[in-house]
Amino acid sequence: MELTWWQRGVIYQIYPRSFADASGDxxxxxxxxxxxxxxxxxxxxxxxxxxxxxxxxxxxxxxxxANYTDVDPVFGSLDDVDALIDAAHRRDLRVLLDWVPNxxxxxxxxxxxxxxxxxxxxxxxxxxxxxxxxxxxAFRDAxxxxxxxxxxxxxxxxxxxxQPDLNWNNPAVRSAMHxxxxxxxxxxxxxxxxxxxHLIGKDPxxxxxxxxxxxxxVGWHHDPLTHGWLREIRTVLDSYDGDRVxxxxxxxxxxxxxxxxxxxxxxxxxxxxxxxWAPFSATAFRDEIAAIEATADETGTWPxxxxxxxxVSRHRTRYGGDxxxxxxxxxxxxxxxxxxxxxxxxELGLEDAVVPPDRVVDPGGRDPARAPIPWHGGPGHxxxxxxxxPWPPEPSTRNADAQRRDPDSIAALYRRLxxxxxxxxxxxxxxxxLRDTPExxxxxxxxxxxxxxxxxxxxxxxxxxxxxxxxxxxQVATRRAREGVAFDDVLAATEAVVxxxxx
Length: 503
Ligand code: GLC
Fold this sequence. Notes:
Blueprint: H1 5-8, E1 11-14, H2 16-19, H3 30-35, H4 37-43, E2 47-50, H5 78-90, E3 94-99, H6 109-114, E4 128-129, E5 145-148, E6 153-156, H7 171-186, E7 191-194, H8 225-238, E8 245-248, H9 255-259, E9 269-270, H10 274-277, H11 282-299, E10 304-306, H12 315-318, H13 323-333, E11 339-343, H14 400-405, H15 410-423, H16 425-428, E12 431-434, E13 441-447, E14 452-458, E15 464-465, E16 472-477, E17 490-491, E18 495-501
Parallel strand pairs: 1-2, 1-11, 2-3, 3-7, 7-8, 8-9, 10-11
Antiparallel strand pairs: 4-6, 5-6, 12-13, 13-14, 14-18, 15-17, 16-18
């Protein structure tokens, strides 16, 4: 089967405020992104996705959109988006934007009209009720409804009160949101990451959540109509040429529920966060990989693979700070079947920043994972002004420049893995077969039409013997010194290797 770029490829997530600041105001911007595309090319990814860049009061740092078809001045202008797309395409990099379909900002003109009066034509673009149900909002322990005194009704917001939920049951809303997609597709973007798209379908009866679901994850009030709306969205994408793609943030845990959003005629891809939630353990990883593989086969969908993003603690930090663990996880991530999404900075082995109470800005407690990228070890680390958040640990030594020059760095490991993955069809497209192993070790084979690779990952903090059948050479290893030599049946503590048949 011929794979598309978004199946073979690897996508790099940029959190725009924290990536690179060209204007010197301490907040990253589109020009900064464009000036650092060489980093993505050096690394060897296939495309970038940037978190929202639209005009926003920044109550949720851009996930509260006040205008879907413009750019917030803090990030630049529409011309800067065009220039970014152009520069990326000249380097063979695709560009995905974040599309936020579930809610707008309370400053969006649609909501300002909607809240104006009960008979405003935009009233039904949002969800208004005389009485709230028992749904809860994200980030704080509070109802998902706010009473708007002017009209005496409550409006629904799964996130902050400044993020009112749109009413997707209203065809005018769907049509306006399709126009947003077309606006950016016409400008040449290669696709979208769709924010919390599983939430757009709400049971119109707005029934209370059952007790065991209240306050669990962000509520999910599944309405089967959602799937029809996803088909409409897919039709918009498919009316453009060039393999445009939409990947949905479906923040659920059951892989079947996740993938029900990504059937052939719905989303191309849906994020599966179960590897991200897994502890650093061979058994936990093995179980998640088995589930990902099984559900992908059953449903005919293509897996996605994620360890970190802007909403959670960075995986190195989650694993206790040991860089060797981050290396093992990276080697696994980039040798699995599916589309990996990297979060900017993970290739540098960044840890979460320590954010003192007086520097906290995010209502969801996610500042530590959003610390700025240090580009070099000198003063300012490549940033003109003091950045909006504190630096991650050790920016003078742990920065892009130092890492790129050191062949033994974790960034150099990511680069070797990405090269190996791109060059070998067995790795980017082949089947995956889990193997039996000693405790603490994860092992699988990848096999394509011709090539074959074996991956061995020792999650334990002690060396282990892993006998292998036949003769194998180490192609990529978390410790570079092992590469290019015969595999001797032993993995060091917290070490992983990609093996290729010898000869
Ligand atoms: C998604 C985003 C998160 C945001 C939320 C509301 O989960 O990833 O950053 O706060 O949706 O838009």
